Amino acid sequence: MQSPHRPSLLRKMNVRKVLEVIQSQGTLTRADVMRCSGISAPTVSKAVSALLDAGLLEERETAEFSVGRPGKLLQLPRFSAQVIGVVLDWDYCSIVASGLDGFLHEEKLDQFKTPSSYEDLINIISQKIMDLVKKEEIPALGVGITVPGLVNSNDGRIFLASNLHIVDGQAPAVDIAAKTNLECILVQKSTSLCLSEKTYGAGQDLEDFISLDVTSGFGMGAFTGGQLLDGQHGLAGEIAHITVEPQGGRVCGCGNLGCLETVATDMALTHYVSKRVGKELDFDAIKELVKQGELDITPELDRTIEFLGIGVAAAINIFNPSNIFITSRLFDLQDDVFGRMCDLAKNRALKPSSSSCEIERSKGNKYLGAVAGIINHLANGLGPRLT
To answer: Which Pfam families match (predicted)?
Structure first.
């Protein structure tokens, strides 16, 4: 006997399919959507109506010089609706508005130094969000918040943020939602970058790919079989805290010694360079000194990319992806750094997997990652994917 809930579920899946077609293809007519999705005209029409009512689509007239009577054009809202992206990080936090098409209103980007207390963090972010929404007078459909830490997807609480301990055990999305009355979602930073590639970037047509963020930590997000790898608590794919230096390694933010995160990231490089020169330097200062020829970081850079290559090789062996997208500023320090790291990774990985894997620099950014997090959440609310 067929479940009485089946037709309703199928309607939701069709609505989501229509949204995903327009996300991937851009501005379309209803007839275009029908062709691209394989869904019947009446079903497309109902799905479009639902998306228009929800504010997730807008329609506009075709150009006046169009021949015949073409249908209205459907597109993701750029200025008639917005989502807010919030990026939490160990040094600075950022807030930016975006259209639902992923167009960032970067002129409204607001960046501030990360406060020392969790209460101040929530109060500042909530106030800035409300000021932004009030000023623009554009409906805000939700807020995507990213954090460089381990997020429990079941309750939105942060297990551990190795470099931002004021949020350990906290649920920022819940607390910000309570103050702003907006729908909020918290996403691990590396996962958000992965969603960004899938929604707006080079991963749109890929089924199996990995996104690595090795700036402050060693974060990984993965799509396998077209689905975001999640796990019991949303922690699947966590390789940052694999021990690679069991003897004499640095203490990691997780409390263990010699984690991959302590040796294979932008922050790891700054630590070891600062230690050698005897003063605290940030990445930008190191980059400028290298550019001016005043600082040789060859020993630290070689060591960092060797460990990064080990981490990338492990990801290739474990997940067998078609592509790996990496976010790192290490590759800006010397022209050959990225190529050297790729060679190291492929030489260490299993040949059947590495030979068919493309390693690329990510073209996304942390702001778009936060936006993709809330966009994906809103899409999930429409229903599961129609495969």
So the answer is: MarR_2, ROK
Q: Helix, strand, coil % (nearest 5) of the chain?
A: 45, 20, 35
In which residue are the tokens 């992965």 written?
194
Tell me, yes or no, whether 235 lies in a domain: yes
Token pair belonging to 151: 């997020």
Q: What domain count does the chain have?
A: 3
Q: What is the value of pTM for the model shown? A: 0.84
Query: Do residues 174 and 247 share a domain?
Result: no
Rounded (10°) CA dihedral 26, 32, 34, 38:
-80
CATH of the domain at 305: 3.30.420.40
Q: How far apart are the first and last CA of the chain?
A: 23
60: containing domain: 5-75
Residue among 172, 93, 156, 105 nearest 133 (CA): 105
Q: What is the pLDDT of residues 235-266, one digit of tens each?
A: 788 899 999 999 989 999 889 999 999 999 99
Name residue 144's beta-bridge partners: 85, 185
Q: How far apart are CA 317 and CA 308, in angstroms?
A: 14
Residue whose token pair is 């749109």:
204
Q: Which residue among 75, 99, 133 closes a domain?
A: 75
The answer on 295 and 187 residing in a single domain is no
**Which residue shows structure tokens 């943020």?**
161
* Location of structure tokens 């689905």: 227
Name the stretches of the chain with pLDDT < 70.
1-7, 63-71, 386-387
Residue type, 90: W
Do 209 and 358 sit in the same domain of this protein? yes
